[in-house]
């Protein structure tokens, strides 16, 4: 009986020692999984600087832009990215400058134009955009009111 108690104690001590060793090994393994040298390489790379989107055909639609970044230990310093210039944007202000426009103003009878102002809403890929822009367009057919009366067919 005393011999069995001693064997149980030895077994318990051995088991606890094994558990302790396994815990120590697993924390060492966890420490190895975090690779600090990769973090250092990432921080060496500068931010990407992108050129404007250059359409493949015409002045809008699908195209490409070039990206560059600095860093002595940085593996990739240039890359090309697909991009798209929406064909309904006001391209005269730069295809990568998006504006929020106010309502059209009253018709200027001297020029037969109406104007509205747009404030810069978003500049894509660090584009150099004007803060506010003004556009004009012909007033349309509001010359004289239609006569009320019979329809002439």
UniProtKB/TrEMBL annotation:
Compartmental location: Secreted
One GO-annotated biological process of the protein: positive regulation of cell division
Keywords, in A-Z order: Disulfide bond, Growth factor, Heparin-binding, Mitogen, Secreted, Signal
Gene3D superfamilies according to UniProt: Heparin-binding Growth Factor, Midkine, Chain A- C-terminal Domain, Pleiotrophin/Midkine, N-terminal domain
Transmembrane region(s): none
Pleiotrophin/Midkine C-terminal domain ranges (all copies): 94-149
Signal peptide: 1-30
Sample GO molecular function, one term: heparin binding
Domain Pleiotrophin/Midkine N-terminal: 32-93
One cellular component term from this protein's GO annotations in UniProt: extracellular region
SMART domains listed in its UniProt record: PTN
Source organism, top-level taxon: Eukaryota
Function in brief: Secreted growth factor that mediates its signal through cell-surface proteoglycan and non-proteoglycan receptors. Regulates many processes like cell proliferation, cell survival, cell growth, cell differentiation and cell migration.
Similarity section: Belongs to the pleiotrophin family.
Protein known as: Pleiotrophin
Source organism of this protein record: Psilopogon haemacephalus (coppersmith barbet)
């Amino acid at each position: 009986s005393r011999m069995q108690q001693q064997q149980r104690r030895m077994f318990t001590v051995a088991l606890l020692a094994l558990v302790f060793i396994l815990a120590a090994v697993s924390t060492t393994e966890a420490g190895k999984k975090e690779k600090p040298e990769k973090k250092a390489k990432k921080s060496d790379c500068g931010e990407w600087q992108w050129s404007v989107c250059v359409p493949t055909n015409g002045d809008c639609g699908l195209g490409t832009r070039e990206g560059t970044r600095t860093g002595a230990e940085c593996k990739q310093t240039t890359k090309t990215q697909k991009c798209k210039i929406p064909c309904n944007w006001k391209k005269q202000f730069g295809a990568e400058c998006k504006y929020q426009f106010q309502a059209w103003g009253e018709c200027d009878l001297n020029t037969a134009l109406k104007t509205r102002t747009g404030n810069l809403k978003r500049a894509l890929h660090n584009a150099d955009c004007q803060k506010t822009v003004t556009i004009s367009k012909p007033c349309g057919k509001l010359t004289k009111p239609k006569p009320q009366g019979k329809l002439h067919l």
